[in-house]
Amino acid sequence: MGFGFGFMDAAFPVMFTIVFVLIFGTIVVTLVRGIGEWNKNNHSPRLVVDAEVVTKRADVSHHAHPNAGDASGAHGFHHTSSTTYYVTFEVKGGERLEFAVPGTEYGQLVEGDRGELAFQGTRFMSFERQS
């Protein structure tokens, strides 16, 4: 005796509920972690240390969003991308710290630059190059 439509009619609501709970749970966990990191950074001391730029990298994410259709009625996807810039600094004692930095700051930094790094927890504040 095989599975008929009765089984699928009963199983679909259960599977739908499980998928919904998993997606909703993932969103909640991500939000809680983000708020926790933001709060931890706000309660961390602002530190200014001598540092050297040792590496730079960029992380490009591509996204496809469905279009509602153009004037001709054609449907498709609208593609966008976003870039997150990271810089790794080495401080006295050899410890390395990586921070997400604004694109304008990323473009001005060169590996080997030395200066004063200001940060608060995992939040990059500024880097002032020494001449």
CATH fold description of the largest domain: OB fold (Dihydrolipoamide Acetyltransferase, E2P)
Number of domains: 2
Largest sheet: 5 strands, antiparallel
Fraction in beta strands: 35-45%
- Helix content bin: 25-40%
Number of strands: 5
Report the total helices: 2
Radius of gyration: 24 Å
3D structure, described in words:
The chain has helices spanning 5-43, 103-108; strands at 46-66, 77-91, 96-101, 114-120, 123-129. With 131 residues, it is of the alpha+beta class. It has two domains: 1-43; 45-131, OB fold (Dihydrolipoamide Acetyltransferase, E2P), CATH 2.40.50. The protein has a five-stranded antiparallel beta sheet. A hairpin with a 2-residue loop joins β4 and β5. The longest helix is centred in the first third of the chain and has 39 residues, at 5-43. The protein is elongated and about 75 Å long.
